[in-house]
Amino acid sequence: MKAAVLHQYDETLERDELVRYETVPDPEIESPTDVIIRVGGAGVCRTDLHVVEGLWRNHADVTLPYIMGHENAGWVEEIGRAVTSVKVGDAVICHPLVTSGHCLACRRGDDMHAEESRFPGINADGGYAEYLRSGERALIKLPPSLAPQDVAPYTDAGLTAYRAAKKASRHLLPGQFAVIIGAGGLGHVGIQVLRALCAADIIVIDRSEAALTLALECGAHHAVIADGSEVAQIKDLTKGKGAEAVIDFVGEGSSVSQGLAMTRDGGYYYIVGYGGKVEIPTIDMITSEKTIVGNLVGTYPELVELMALADRGLVSLKTRQYSLENANQALKDLHHGLIHGRAVLIP
After folding, report:
1. Domains in the chain: how many in total?
2. What pTM was computed for the model?
3. Does residue 37 come out as left (phi exceeding 0), alpha (psi in the -120 to 50 range) or beta?
4. Could you give the CA distance from residue 167 to residue 26 in angstroms, rounded to a whole number?
5. Which domain CATH number covers 168?
């Protein structure tokens, strides 16, 4: 099969060829519960850039060369002898983590903390290819309204945004405020999820006018340009008190300190993007009683819930499609901020 393969790390992301388009062996059934997927779409994620940079080399047990791509959807091509819930030809979306289902975390539905798992595209070959090896427990059948190439990025970007926005929606009341930092691939989904699950006023911050236009199209009530005055603007919009919830999809640079500054006393700061540091004096934690919440992708049931919203038209993805052989262009465009929404590779 054809695949876009990572052969070496590049901390600068300046090489012309970050991945190599080449012929590699097809994946094979290795376990009775394995499923081979014919990839219909593979999302291109900022995490993929971090993988290329080598940021994950000490956090994932992988040996180069290998195939990235952890946001995948397609059609069932082959099934292991124990598989009963899907059949060849079914259109499916893949939860990003393939788990055994035996550990206590799995039985509680806490997929991301499973003791036995593999993460295609992170610590195993992923979906930047014509075929992908996944597992029966990871698959969700798609309704006729949703095509694999249109929904692939939901498996990480969409699911991560859904998980954070769902947490926030549980305590947000009408008349309260939610701030979203970053209206990109995750943020534009998070806006729609908040609109679907709660009635809080949504304020979105981004450096890009185009991203803010997309945010308003997705249902944001207020758009704030990130020009150094955003904390003051948020305080003005929230009558000086800050927001009850801040969801930070950037997580680096000044967004962390600003996000905490925008969070009102007793409020919640949800950190999704990564690369920066959370630094706050303990006395400030005590006196403000702010809650800082980490978010790691999401569970299988949450992906089912997100697909239900997408099927009803309450959440949609803005995507830009590239052929698999143009994976380098997609990665470069993402790195240079030229993609508003999500990029998807089509084999």
Report:
1. 2
2. 0.94
3. beta
4. 40
5. 3.40.50.720
| CA dist., res. 133 & res. 30, Å (int) | 9
Going along 28-109, which residue ranges are E strands?
A: 34-44, 66-67, 72-79, 91-94, 98-99
Q: Tens digits of per-residue pLDDT, 14-25?
A: 999 999 999 999
- 89 CB burial (10 A radius; 0-12, 13-18, 19+): exposed
Question: Which residue carries 């009963």 as its tokens?
Answer: 84
pLDDT tens readout for residues 216-260? 999 999 999 999 999 999 999 999 999 999 999 999 999 999 999
Q: Is-cis flag, bond preceding 27, omega within 30?
A: no
Q: Is 311 exposed, middle or buried (0-12, 13-18, 19+ CB in 10 A)?
A: middle
Residues 254 and 332 both lie in one domain: no
CA separation for the pair 74, 132 (Å, rounded): 9
Task: Report which of 310, 336, 338, 335 is spatially closest to residue 45, judged by C-alpha positions.
Answer: 335
Collapse the DSSP code of 58 into the 3-class scheme (helix H, G, I; strand E, B; otherwise coil) and give the result: coil
Summarised one tens digit per residue, pLDDT across range 71-109 is 999 999 999 999 999 999 999 999 999 998 889 999 998
Co-location of 235 and 326 in the same domain: no
Domain housing 108: 2-156+298-346
β-bridge mates for residue 44, sequence order: 343
DSSP states of 174-230 as a string? TT-EEEEE--STTHHHHHHHHHHH---EEEEEES-HHHHHHHHHTT-SEEEE-SS-H
